[in-house]
Specification:
Strand content: 25-35%
Bound molecules: zinc ion
Shape: globular
Radius of gyration: 14 Å
Number of strands: 5
Order of helices and strands: HHEEEEE
Helix content: 10-25%
């Protein structure tokens, strides 16, 4: 297994990058990203998001204390760029971390 490095938006903020600048840093072209498949995986080869070349998480500042929403942009090992809408229940009730489809 190859080692992985995960850089977060907290790192980007410390570096003074905006989300757009951070995405550019990773050269993920959001405009060409396809939607993930129904299981939240690559729409082309169906690998899970952690099987990626790189991933960029863009979390919205939330006024909701019970749920954080955001989008993950993934460059799959097959080269496909796709996005996943993410919604995480931070209360500990219900699902802990799951993709919610595209509401
Ligand atoms: Zn793929």
């Amino acid at each position: 297994m190859l080692p992985k490095v995960i850089l977060t938006t907290a790192w980007a903020e410390l570096e003074g990058f905006s989300d757009a600048e951070t995405a550019d840093f990773f050269t993920i072209d959001k405009k060409t990203a396809s939607r993930a498949d129904k299981n939240g995986a690559c729409p082309r080869c169906h690998r899970v998001p952690n099987d990626c070349i790189k991933k960029f998480s863009s979390w919205e500042p939330s006024v909701y204390v019970e749920r954080i929403k955001g989008v993950d942009y993934v460059v799959c090992l097959c080269g496909t760029v796709y996005y996943i809408d993410i919604s995480i229940d931070v209360t500990g009730r219900g699902d802990s971390a799951s993709t919610t489809g595209w509401q």
